[in-house]
Amino acid sequence: MSVNSICSNICPVGGTQRRDNGHWEAPGGVLELAEDITTGLLREVKEETGLQVEPVVLTGVYKNMTRGIVALVFRCKVVAGRLTETDETRAFRWVTADEVREMASEAFAIRVLDAMQNDHAPAVRQHDGEHLLGA
């Protein structure tokens, strides 16, 4: 299972560019075996951005059908820290919905778009790592 954070103190939202493949994604990663979801979310965001966040709401559940990974995405509020490049990230950018659509693959863009628009039940979606799949 993995967790991702869409940081949005108001708008726009933040994205990180991965150092290993250059892709733009929301900060996050795989939970450690004995780690609870909130602790993993806070750890991953801090490791990748230098920011301390507070989860506000779960905005989506996304399954990569090819790899069998389920990602939980949370809208978060930045509470402390400053953006810092790490071994995992090489750039940061505050982005609009249109920029997200241009910068990220469909499978990753939808996570951010859902978090930007979601004021109700979390979205539940499937993808193949690049494209959304039908329900």
Automatic annotation (TrEMBL):
Pfam families: NUDIX
Key words of the record: Hydrolase
Domain Nudix hydrolase intervals: 1-117
Cofactor dependence: Mg(2+)
MF GO annotations: hydrolase activity
This protein's record includes keyword Hydrolase: yes
Source domain of life: Bacteria
Official protein name in the record: NUDIX hydrolase
Organism whose genome encodes this protein: Nonomuraea glycinis
